[in-house]
Amino acid sequence: MSILQQEIKFLSGVGPKRAELLNKELNIYSFEDLLYYFPYKYIDRSKFYKISELNPNLPYVQLKGKIVGFETIGGGRKKRLVAFFSDGTGTIELLWFKGLSYIQKSLLLNTEYIVFGKPGYFSGKYNIIHPEIENALKTQDVISAKLQAFYNTTEKLKKSFLHSKAVSKLMNNLLIILKDKIKETLPDYLLKKYNLISLEDALFNIHFPQNADLLKKAIYRLKFEELFYIQLNILQKRSYRIHKSTGFVFSKVGDFLNRFYENNLPFELTDAQKRVLKEIRKDIGSGRQMNRLLQGDVGSGKTLVAVMSMLIALDNGYQACIMVPTEILANQHFDTLKEFLNGLPVSVDLLTGSTKTAARKEIHENLLNGELQILIGTHALIEDTVKFKNLGLVVIDEQHRFGVAQRAKLWKKNHQPPHILVMTATPIPRTLAMTIYGDLDVSVIDELPPGRKPIQTIHLYDSRRLRMFGFLKQQIEKGRQIYIVYPLIKESEKMDYKDLEDGYESISRAFSPPKFAVSVVHGKMKPVEKDAAMNLFVKGQTHIMVATTVIEVGVDVPNASVMVIESAERFGLSQLHQLRGRVGRGADQSYCVLMTSYKLSNEARKRIDIMTKTNDGFEISEADLKLRGPGDVEGTQQSGIAFDLKIANLAQDGQLIQYVRDIAESILDNDPDLKNTDNYILASQLKKISNKKVDFSVIS
Ligand code: ADP
Ligand code: MG
């Protein structure tokens, strides 16, 4: 066993109790886990301030001096210890509220100390509350550093005195043991070619930077390595899938597709739809398994592409299914499909959480005996009881709502994996897609069906609501329908956002029968009630749909031309864009009205500005990535990848991702199985990584 695999409890300074805390709180089990627990910031500890130089705006300061006296003030819970600390230029108060007797016992008068903390200023005096304080003679760790690393720790850890400084001490102990024992993880030729410092130097300097330049080089080397192996892993899997794996061959186009095309297709396909279908046909006819991501903005007509792809599966004797994230969407897809396929001898059914037992049993049987050809459903599809006779194609709509594990289950429903088409309306920035969906082939529908007018987006403050109502009335008089969306169902005490119930009341007053009809849909309603309300709106029997975000995904009512989003500052960019995509589906001019209060944070204001400036989903997703960072961008949460990265940052390191991907690609081009002696290290690292980590490349 390598020393890195040693249990953390064996490190000097840890022991069983602290080990348990480190396990639980920081997921640190081994020496290696600790070694890769990187600091979140650094502070220059080479500088000492003079007390006479202090001013209340300084962040952290380091002082050197002596304690000239103690005083205990107050009693009971308010008891505190003051140490008067002087460096010859002035005096400052060091204050403790906890652990007083222990601290007082451990500190000596007239001994030189180094004090570190954030200075405060109170009634004419400077103070530092709960400073770090150390005997100046003893402070020199065996490993000295110019910049002090700071580690995140938790409340529980701090209670056991495992604060940042203590973690740093453990790191110090660890690095002493590991001296000369850290094996390089990148081949020498890469280090040389790309100017990378050794792993040992990098790990040493990331924890104890000898200077700012070495810290920079350490960070770069570690990011490079982290991103490089992700790409190497993905690209190698991709190359295996393309060159070695087999998939069902859908060799022909038959009656199902032909009859659909001649009799049922209600409109001309857009050029983009045609192109994407060609790409899909090439995949599914090639003998290798398709794993394709179809990106297309809301309303770009992805459903039709899915339908036609499924008909090709049927033409070749296979079954197909569509998995969607919500019940409303499943219902709507079911209706859409029945309408699209009207008159064709295709059996389609719907399976959701609310499918009754008897119906469910029948579906199970018909799937197994092959009588059922297309199944539409929610998560209910991935239950083990759902078994197909010969599932050939799986379509996953609005993929970001499904987790990796859920998708993997669907994948395993056959002895041989079916072809996979993942559809998303949340465009993912390119660099992110390269990492999260690096193994997928990507198709893009970059064109909306003809005759669509760009949606006009308007920002209004709440005080203009009456005016907005007037506008809605005009639209309804023109025959249009309207969505009004709220972030919350019930008023919450902490936030004074307009909530749906309040809103519904005032809307009902302003839009009262017989002239106007309003429906409501929210997450707390029973599915039957939701469907009933939704249906009234779909059929045009109600003019206004008041809803929470349950309508966000996929709902299609072409006659709806206005989307009002209440408390729009509460929503993220991709959510706003999704919601806006509910309108603009017909030929009429559509509008999106973003209602907000006057008080807007900078970020919220930026989001609203972007929304009013562009309708382009890709532009919006790039902006989103910049504003929020990758952990919050939809799609990354479920994949888990943003959280698994130790040092690289998908939002900031886009350039580096592209760079290392190109490097990985050219290595694999020359040595696909990594068999060259030079690449031995790469092969063994890759093996180690894929044993340990979630496999990001198999997304479905
Ligand atoms: P999304 O990509 O958001 O899933 P949909 O598939 O729901 O979009 O399509 C949006 C609307 O556009 C639907 O009403 C659909 O019938 C219509 N549509 C799709 N393709 C075309 C086309 N080529 N021409 C005209 N309308 C189309
Ligand atoms: Mg859709």
Describe this structure in words.
40% of the residues lie in helices and 17% in strands. The two termini are 35 Å apart. Strands 6-7-4-3-2-5-8 form a 7-stranded mixed sheet. A 7-stranded parallel sheet has the order 12-13-11-14-15-10-16, with helices on both faces. A 6-stranded parallel sheet has the order 17-22-21-18-20-19, with helices on both faces. It has 25 helices and 22 strands. Helix 20 (602-613) packs antiparallel against helix 21 (617-628). Among the domains are: 46-144, Nucleic acid-binding proteins (OB fold (Dihydrolipoamide Acetyltransferase, E2P)); 255-445, P-loop containing nucleotide triphosphate hydrolases (Rossmann fold, 3-Layer(aba) Sandwich); 456-614, P-loop containing nucleotide triphosphate hydrolases (Rossmann fold, 3-Layer(aba) Sandwich), CATH 3.40.50.300. The chain has 700 residues and is α/β, with parallel strands linked by helices. It binds adenosine-5'-diphosphate (ADP) and magnesium ion.
Proportion of β residues?
15-25%
CATH class of the domain at 255-445: Alpha Beta
Q: What is the CATH superfamily of the domain at 255-445?
A: P-loop containing nucleotide triphosphate hydrolases
In CATH terms, what is the fold-level topology of the domain at 255-445?
Rossmann fold
Termini distance? 35 Å
Outline of this structure?
This protein is α/β, with parallel strands linked by helices and 700 residues long.
Present the secondary structure layout.
Layout: H1 15-26, H2 31-35, E1 41-44, E2 61-73, E3 80-86, E4 91-96, H3 100-106, E5 112-117, E6 119-122, E7 125-129, E8 132-135, E9 147-150, H4 155-159, H5 164-178, H6 188-193, H7 199-207, H8 212-243, H9 255-264, H10 271-285, E10 291-296, H11 302-315, E11 319-323, H12 327-340, E12 348-351, H13 357-369, E13 374-377, E14 391-397, H14 404-411, E15 419-424, H15 430-436, E16 441-445, E17 456-461, H16 465-477, E18 481-485, H17 500-510, E19 518-521, H18 527-538, E20 544-547, E21 560-565, H19 573-580, E22 591-596, H20 602-613, H21 617-628, H22 636-639, H23 641-644, H24 654-670, H25 680-692
Parallel strand pairs: 4-7, 10-15, 10-16, 11-13, 11-14, 12-13, 14-15, 17-22, 18-20, 18-21, 19-20, 21-22
Antiparallel strand pairs: 1-9, 2-3, 2-5, 3-4, 5-8, 6-7
